[in-house]
Design goal:
Shape: globular
Strand order of the largest sheet: 1-2-4-5-6-3
Number of helices: 2
Structural class: alpha+beta
Helix content: 10-25%
Distance between the termini: 16 Å
């Protein structure tokens, strides 16, 4: 199957299509059916008490699957989330970047299914696990 976009191309698409949040995320690695994405944690991501909020963790998992799908199918900015299930397992480290390790489990013509483990940077214990399904626009 092979990658259709490089990490740089995916990052550029995110910057072009979602400039309001593109600087929140950094692709650390992109391989066939896998991606590792960093949430660059800032004040906007924190909840009272200084830990990363649930919506920010969800956004990281969601954008990781989105970018993994784009890497595999090419620049399909209109790919959309159709389902998400997320388990918050432990409190993230205070004001620390989060890392999403994403693996695409299925990549079909119209649907992609991904699994994401989210970690506080430097920890080997996941803070969340998410399963997402994406709808892919028709291929050219």
């Amino acid at each position: 199957m092979g990658l259709k976009m490089t990490a740089g191309e995916v990052a550029a698409l995110l910057e072009r299509e979602f400039p309001q949040v593109s600087d929140h995320f950094t692709i650390e690695s992109l391989d066939e059916m896998r991606i590792r994405v960093r949430l660059n944690v800032g004040e906007a991501h924190l909840r009272p008490g200084g830990t990363v909020s649930g919506p920010s963790i969800f956004a990281l998992a969601d954008v990781a699957v989105y970018m993994a799908v784009l890497g595999m199918v090419g620049p399909k900015a209109l790919a959309v989330t159709t389902n998400c299930s997320i388990d918050f397992m432990r409190k993230p480290a205070a004001a620390t970047d989060l890392i999403a390790d994403c693996r695409l489990l299925k990549l079909g013509r119209v649907l992609a299914v991904g699994d994401v483990l989210v970690y506080s940077d430097g920890s080997d214990q996941p803070v969340a696990r998410a399963s997402l399904t994406y709808s892919i626009p028709p291929r050219d």
